[in-house]
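ASSEMBLY PREDICTION REQUEST
Request ID: AP-0331
Submitted by: J.K., bench scientist
Number of chains: two
Total residues: 745
Priority: normal
Notes: Please return the full assembly, not individual chains.
Input sequences:
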Amino acid sequence: MLKKMKKCMAFLLILCMAVTATACGGNTDNSAAVNENTASSTDANKNTDTDTNTGSETDENAASGEELPRFKILFAYQQYEDKLGGEFKSAIQYLCDAYNCEAVFYESGSGDTAVGNLESVLTAGDIDGLISVGFDTARMEVASKYNVPVVLACGFPSVEAEVSGITSYDLFLGGVTDSDYRAGYRAMESLYEAGCRQVTYSGLSAGFAKSHDDRTKGVMDFLEANPDMILLADSYTMGKASEDIPTFNASFPEIEGMAFTSMSDALYNAIESEDLADGSVKIAGVDISSKTGEFFERGIQVWGCGGQYGTAMVSWAILYNYLIDGTRIISDTTTPIERDYLEITTYEEFEDFVKYVGVSLPVYDAEEIKELIHYFNPDITYEGYLSHAENYTLQDIIERHGDKIND
Amino acid sequence: MKKRNWKRIIINTIISLIIPVGMFLIFAVLSKGRTATVKMFVTTFRQSIIPIIICWGLMLNMSVGMMNFSAGAMMLCAGILGGNLAQMTGTGIPGVLVFCLLVTLVEGAITGFLYNKMRVPCMVLTIGMMMIWESFPKLIFSSGVNLPSSMTLLARSPYCFILLGVMFVVFHMLYNKTAFGHNLRAIGNNQAIANSVGLDSDKIKFASFVFGAIFLGIAATLYVSERGELRNVQFMASMTIMMDGFMGMFLALFLSKYCNMSVAVIIGSFSMKMLSNGFVAIGLSARTRDIMQGLLLLVLLTISANAGVFERIKTNKAFAKSADDEYRKIQQTGKSIQ
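STATUS: Completed
Returned structure:
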């Protein structure tokens, strides 16, 4: 009996190995850590269903000038199934299609796993550049070993030692981040302007993500600057902010406002379940969710923000500058370029956000990105990038793309 | 007929209720009455429902010395698959319930089967299964699940309480009134003796996974209804889903000496949630709350693990005293003869 069992187990193990080897052998979507999209395989993320048809515009861009060299650009993020991940993927794919590049999307993982994952992707030796959301010195060492330049997007190390470590590498080109501190500050400010003086705050566990820590800092600094606004309670969990709502509501019936480091449908559901969706409590938070519009329309939400994928597009431009002609836009790589979020304060602005910032046309089209690339625009400088960042507003996008996007 | 020892019952009831009542009173004073409201009580109880049901499911495995670390992942997988299938088939809330249950039953059966065949420690097996259940829904529904408001009613009052009541009856009957429950406890007490009297441990352990999965299926239904959306996770992030149930389980094991397990689970999970909410109400920072909760759990577990120590010391002292008295008597008798 025991012998039979052993034979069965051995057979099963061989079968598993064979299946794994077959599955990992080719370029399939189910490979361990890499989700590869070649420039030729345009998927639903590429815009083909609007009258503006940016697909044809990008074809023109690629074909109008000289043949651009082909680069393979790796984009690393935690996961692509959420809304932001989908936007990152769509925007980067769009740019790669426009500039004759091959986009490779890969789920980075965290900690030691992330280092191993990166090395397994770079081992093939065909990656020309890396854009990463989240990074550390260990991964920079790996990238440097494989001679791959790196640009960071939507995040930058907070620990000084980590910054010194990463920036000591010649192949580190710098980073572009969102102004999370300002987002946190503005969330509280908006509640204050809406008349809320007794508020609660739900954030992410401290130390897990610098972006969330910066938002919290912004929140706390605003509270310190406005002592007439009272923080009744705060909580920091790993994605369990929706459980704070009933607790806060039961403990503090006098709540006037609630701020969240990240909005989600679970939070909106909890607010409705607690009968707080009657407008008696105002809410503010980062990120857009499917119910955000409804809550703005009902006057419950007073502030929201999003549009981070535009930051990733600027990171792409910085990397492309280096790849095409060796231009380094950021000379002092210890300081990232900071860009504001796109803020929403009314339902009308939300409707504009959906229309102009949704993936029907990215916030920067291929021609606009050309202005950020030294090869096409020799006048572009670091200061130009800073000015470009300052102009990143919803109104700016409407002015640029108003005639390109039909109702 | 066995006479009920009413004195014992009253003492046990008091001991069982010391912790929740004590916590209630302490927090009522510290929070200046914030926690001593009906709203807070109802909210805390409602928040305890999912951990209670998870804990019941875990207890069926714990009773035979097995720890199921994949419970959270099973719930997540069931929630995503069940929610999506219910929407695809247009079956609404009943569909969510049925599909979540079916998925967890399959998961429980597979886990039980593998446990019996592979003969690896349950902890090792369930950690491996956790990774599988976390990854599996991603292959089919990569964006998770989003339920419309009309399909999330089960998580709201009074439906969640009705479901809790039903599951309480199910657990109580299963654990206390069925042969399966008795066999479970027999194996938990001493597997060797249980086997020698003819109990089939493999069959019973398999059944514990399957019956435990029923509770996890209900918990998954409530979990996806409460949140309205679920996303795929990785790297054992699903453990946070079962953590509340886990914490309550240790307290329940301590309290089960004084009351029925089905009630002990309710008291344990409710107490842990009351602790968490109480700390929020008195304004402790999140960091301090986590430390306090951990310390309190440690104290409770220490008391539970060493509950017999004081009695042993007392018994030993009494024995030593009687031995001394005996020795003195002997010595005195010896002197008088001389």
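REVIEWER COMMENTS: The mean pLDDT of chain B is 89.
SIGN-OFF: pending second reviewer
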